[in-house]
Amino acid sequence: MDRRNTLKMLGAAALATAAPFARAAARGAGKRLLILGGTSFLGPAITDIALADGWTVSHFNRGKRLPGGMPGVEQLLGDRDGQLDALKGQRWDAVVDTSGFVPRHVRLSAELLAPATSHYVFISTISVYASMATPAGEDAPVGKLADESVEQVTGETYGPLKALCEQAAEKAMPGRTTVIRPGLIVGPRDRTDRFTYWPVRVARGGEFIAPGTPADPLQVIDVRDLAALVMGCVYARKMQVMNAVSPPRLFTMGGLVDTCVKVAANDARPVWMPADFLAEHKVMPWSDMPAWFPPTGDEAAGALTPVDRALKAGLKIRPLEDTVRDTLAWHTTRPASEREKLRAGITPERESQVLAAWKSRKA
Q1: Are 47 and 94 in contact (CB under 8 A)?
Q2: Residue 54: CB atoms within 10 Å
Q3: Tens digit of pLDDT for each residue in 21-68?
Q4: How far apart are CA 339 and CA 3, in angstroms?
Q5: Helix, strand, or coil here: 289?
Q6: For residue 147, with 0-12 CB atoms within 10 Å meaning exposed, 13-18 middle and 19 or more buried, which class applies?
Q7: Residue 176: which of 102, 104, 89, 116 has the closest Cα?
């Protein structure tokens, strides 16, 4: 498939995503949507739906990722850290915050926008929960920081900071805030490679490491399904907190591996290795083996997050095969430097070493 046909296919998929939320453009006609961020991953997916539905869309960002902005979108330049003049003197029917990581930044923008909108949607994360040892519903305790003035985002502070961001948004707009807590967001345009690794690695063919057991639970959400949920909440004015990821046990690591093999249609062969062997050889969950954590200890229920509220709000999860196929097609359109060196996943050299060690152990 050449680049032109691939982009046409992805464009058609974006339009198909918008269909459940009103093919008639009149649904959003005359309405204005502001996305804080907007040019990275989730923002473009939301924008695709909103534009198809007739909204006037504005993006507020620093202009670094897409200096010229997205076609058909008003670009407002500024910075979450106090440079908000571009947001003054305007009104929006809804605001979606995809780029809030520091509570002070969220407070500044939410307080400024409070008189200018009636609905603020904050994109948070299931990482807010204090523990994943058991399934974490929306009312489960969230993580806390000993020093709430900390603004450096690290693996340890990310979740608690997001929880404080949620609180800042709700405080600025009480009763007018929707908080959506996604899990691992996947699909076309995901440059983290935390899911992309799998279809790309399997497409390379040959033996490859498959972590844990085929029954290990997996939870992901296609960015287009998340965007559809966001816009559905905007239309229905759902003012609540909801987890947003695939339902528990809908997907498994075995299902992901089998789907990637099916889509690749080559000689790829998974070699399943138990968690203790991988740990012994310093093959790390999540980084070397993206999207996977062994279902034990503090992460025992990390892929069993309940999503009843989101399902009631209209969340639809597409078949995993669609996400795998579209992700692989998008990957072929990336710059060569991104295609050749992924940002997640075990390197080919290390994988060969671990495969050899496994065969030696089994011999």
Answers
A1: no
A2: 15
A3: 444 457 899 999 999 999 999 999 999 999 999 999 999 999 998 888
A4: 14
A5: strand
A6: exposed
A7: 116
**What is the residue whose two structure tokens read 């996947």?**
186
Name which of 17, 100, 332 is nearest 196 in CA terms: 332
Angle between helix 158-172 and helix 103-113 axes, rounded to 10 deg:
20
Calpha distance 140→132 (Å, rounded): 10
C-alpha–C-alpha distance, residues 83 and 77, integer Å: 9
CA distances from 233 to 184, 228, 256, 308, 316 (A): 20, 9, 29, 15, 13
Q: Using an 8 Å Cβ cutoff, are 248 and 135 in contact? A: yes
- Does residue 201 contact residue 345 with C-beta atoms inside 8 Å? yes
d(CA 95, CA 153): 23
Rounded to whole angstroms, the Cα distance separating 181 from 219 reads 13
Determine if the pTM surpasses 0.70: yes
